[in-house]
Amino acid sequence: MADRKQATCIAPVNIAVVKYWGKRDENLILPINSSLSGTLSTDQMCAKTTIAISKSFQRDRLWINGKEQDATGKRLQNCLREVRSRCGSEIEGCHYHICSVNNFPTAAGLASSAAGYACLGEYFEYKEGITKIQFTIRQGSGSACRSMYGGFVKWEMGNKSDGSDSIAVQVTPESHWPEMEVLILVVSDKKKGVSSTSGMQTSVKTSKLLKYRAESLVPKLMTEMETAIQQKNYQAFAEITMKDSNQFHAVCLDTYPPIAYMNDISHKIVQLITHFNQYCGEYKACYTFDAGPNAVLYVLAKDVPQILSAVCHYFPCTENHDSYIQGLSNYSDVKEFPKEIENTICLDPIPGSLTGIIHTRVGSGPRVILDDNESLLGGDGLPKC
Amino acid sequence: MADRKQATCIAPVNIAVVKYWGKRDENLILPINSSLSGTLSTDQMCAKTTIAISKSFQRDRLWINGKEQDATGKRLQNCLREVRSRCGSEIEGCHYHICSVNNFPTAAGLASSAAGYACLGEYFEYKEGITKIQFTIRQGSGSACRSMYGGFVKWEMGNKSDGSDSIAVQVTPESHWPEMEVLILVVSDKKKGVSSTSGMQTSVKTSKLLKYRAESLVPKLMTEMETAIQQKNYQAFAEITMKDSNQFHAVCLDTYPPIAYMNDISHKIVQLITHFNQYCGEYKACYTFDAGPNAVLYVLAKDVPQILSAVCHYFPCTENHDSYIQGLSNYSDVKEFPKEIENTICLDPIPGSLTGIIHTRVGSGPRVILDDNESLLGGDGLPKC
User: What range(s) does the Mvd1 C-terminal domain occupy (chains A, B) (predicted)?
Assistant: First the structure.
């Protein structure tokens, strides 16, 4: 272990409520608009990553969820090159072994790479102690910079051409709005979609509506969303979140050729939430969809039982009830959906359309684990399992 | 028959390639942007309507496809009131019997009411001989005014507040581009969607992207589309058609609550056409979707066999082969899809996802049938069957 340095970090997933879509600079990873997200608790979902540096390593190696991956990819290497140039002679001639695991199914199609890169960021921030490290981890995944803090986090697009003012800052810590919980509805879908990297490139090139949205609509949305969060105004938060998600997917459809990340089940979820809110006369849940069919619902803790009951009624589990809901709730917590509401909501249940539900909350940012027993790499620099 | 006047008309369906979505005046039916459509041949699809006026009729009555309908609806009555005020004392104390049939399944969700109202328009134009009648029939269905002519037709939005310059004019007659054929892919879908009337009202109220599209993007699209049609430039025509359809559906998603007219099968059709065109290195087909999941493909006659072969390969018929394709082609005309193209198109066939295909072409406008034997109403003023 003498010539080897290593650290293990845990980093969260973040889910945007004002979406990032499109770069104005592909090399510096500078966005065409500011964005804002909630950081999800690492208790339910996180990436745990061990990074080791040693002169004895022959080459960079990368393991994700137990499987060795190609470590020569452009994004990872850009990121590591940046790290090398920062660390200087101290790590000259060294190579990296990086081992990362998610504690949630990657099949969920959730932004797992952002969490992985945020680990890398946390590790070097721990060493460097500056927010400049955001620039480095954005080389890996743009939105990863928003996973560097807990609570609600905004990524200011900035104006400078060198990107030095394009940084993520915390809007409110996780203690500000502890009632804010999250339900992730994982939609059954095997199709391989368009990656967000290539999708946003095509959108920037072809969608006139994206340009208009980024320049003329998002600045106002950002201000309104920050105010809603600071005032803990759920009604405003919910409406902006849903409208922003709708508009992001509208822009994807306006892309040429068009990109449809939401599928029929996604749209049924939208209908359920819309009808349920209308029945209640106020927002009880709001949806947002990233570059895939899964729905993420931001819901206040007091309303979670009602929403879970509605979701389980219209998207019933067909097998493995015990594992259908994971996290803060269990399937045994789910109450029967009231007949009187069912009669006003014109939807037919679609059994088997979700593979599961993850119940979590807005939580804290990444952290370094100092206990070496928690390392994912053994004494030989290879994954422990 | 002495105190009775009647006429029978046949009117076509039109399918927009630059979409109409949103009114700037709900009473005068004035659109927020100009639109442009192809008129489809009445040989394959049309509405046939007989209108009779008599003092002996006790009340207005309406039959559509053999079933009596409510004749007190606002749209029809607005339309008839307008007619009464134009015709004056001649028809005082009279009531209408109107009988209309479509020669295509209304289940196809195609714009059948436009054709019906165009019949009404043709009948009174026949009597009045002026294009002012467009104002009247727009009271029934806005886009019906584009069914008043054959070939390609534009509806100029106009600027005057009384709507007097908001009129449909022919861009080119059907003889200009006789090679232009049309395949309608009827998608199996039982869900009741949002009507286009209420959908566009909500879009106008809530979608910021719609406003931008109508004001800043459509004027240029209209000019480009007219040029493409006048020059018979299929490559330009195809690209504008697809981009405009994408943008219309993007605006529907940006509506709040969002409207998704296209479903998973619609998006698979988009993928097939996109991949097939990419394989060919030029546009061989272009898609457009109205307020429903059905695809309408504009295809040059020379390319129809290839496109039919592709559609039948990826959306194969599971029953009633003989009736799967109607109109200008038969199922026996369909050639096997070449293996070498299949290998480059990454799509799985989805059997049973279409209920059928209608093969037609751009055709002529409405016409009055003078032969009384063709009337849908008998001597008693009631439907013959």
Answer: 182-369
